[in-house]
Amino acid sequence: MTDRPDADIIAATAAHARLLGHLAGLDDEAAARPSLLPGWTVGHLLTHLARNADSHVKMLEGAAAGEAVAQYDGGVAAREEAIDAGAGRTAAELVDDVRAACDRLERLWATLPDHAWAGHGVNADGSRRPCVLLPFHRWREVEVHQADLGLAPTWDDWSDDYVSRELPRALATLPDRLADPAARRRLTAWLLDRADSPGELVIEGWDVHPEYYGR
Fold first, then answer.
1. Superfamily of domain covering 6-167
2. Average pLDDT per block of 10 residues along the chain, 215 residues long
3. Domain boundaries in the chain?
4. What is the pTM of this model?
């Protein structure tokens, strides 16, 4: 039996509340502005946050039924189509969608049978996604994308609890994201207190670890 990830559920629920608080008063002009993610408006990001919550509901409900279901029907292409289709809605429609999707997910977290947490879903890239990790992944989505909206919160507003959880995981990806052997040696020497600051390092993007950053 896998324990319920209660601490992550509480943290993700609090992140939902912060997000919805920041969206209070969002108008149509702001919803149509470019976000900090290339090619995406604020509307794209809000649609993504809503559909991501629904994808978690889908995987968790599947696990409760003893099935491993795909996060998005139709994979990455269908995910992108749904985001594009919803991005141009009014601010009120976008915010209502996010609020309703968060509510659906929170209600499921509260009622999900214990055995479901031992199950898994299938991420958009085809990788296995353990259900017990889903609340943390949702927490990450909301924390990170609040900053990506470009409305008010930034990465400097990330909660201390989130950073404490995320930093060790992000650091663990560095060996694969530092392609230059000399850069690896320089960073290792610094971490072992044998060299000065490594200075600027060329770190490859998340595509090196598609299974790490769920979408």
1. dinb family like domain (1.20.120.450)
2. 90 97 96 96 98 97 97 90 97 98 98 96 90 97 96 91 94 90 92 91 71 56
3. 6-167, 173-210
4. 0.91
